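Anyone able to model this chain together with guanosine-5'-diphosphate?
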Amino acid sequence: MAGFLRSLYNRFSNTAEIDWDDLEASLVAADLGPRLAMSLVEELRDLGRQITADDVVEITRQHLAQRLPPDLPPPLPPSSDKPFVFLIVGVNGVGKTTTCAKLAHWLQRRGSLTYLAAADTFRAAATEQLLRWGQRLDIPVITGPANADPSSVCFNAHQQAIRDGARYLICDTAGRLHNRHNLMEELSKIRRTLAKQDPAAPHLTLLVLDASTGSNALQQAKEFHKASPLDGFILTKMDGSGKGGVAVAIHEQLGIPPRFLGTGEEPADFALFQRARFLEDMI
Ligand code: GDP
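re: yes, here you go
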């Protein structure tokens, strides 16, 4: 038991009778969202008997397990000679560029040549940051000039990755959520451009979210899912907040699964999402 389940246990282990409002508030504070919090409290109340802190933890864990997806296999490179393409989206500051580097490192360590495309051409710092990661981790980074069309950077990177026989290509994009129309245009142009060289690309569009932003992360997921269909999300900064409740809320409300978790600033602080581990160690 860790994080939020432990604090639930500690909070209710010394009370003779559970205060339902208090329990609901604790569940909402863990970013599960009001609807899920309410249904959990109802389930416990319906037991119609004295509830212990153990019951609270066990039923919460079961409730969350039902609402999280089963473990998905890691993304395998396609059987064709073209790379598996990730389109990574998210607002600035959530850890998107770091996550692209970590994902590349994770794939490369499993023996697959991986390329990075610096398509956040809006922020020069993002390209520089990705280049630094590339140097440090020995991963080729394809860049374009400042303010270049992000889709042309993705096109060139894709072409080069195909030519060099790379197995994965990860495209880091800009996250300007304040203008959904522009974002939608930009992301659909990148999709069309990638599909020119491989109709199956991008194979996986993943949204990067900062776990410590709670219900804001859910809002971002809703906005991005409207702008560009998402296949899943990556929750970063799981080391900081100790809260991962928002993963359950996003999966329940939007039907998109968590795929990876970021647990620190170093390249190795990255893991495939696994339900049992998440419920045991992270929530
Ligand atoms: P971007 O603007 O979304 O591309 O965000 P960056 O990749 O520049 O990351 C923003 C900050 O978050 C940096 O200081 C990263 O080191 C930090 N960061 C990214 N992922 C994690 C994580 O999983 N845990 C922690 N603690 N920090 C992270």
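The beta strands are 84-89, 114-119, 141-142, 168-173, 204-210, 232-236, 258-262, 270-272.
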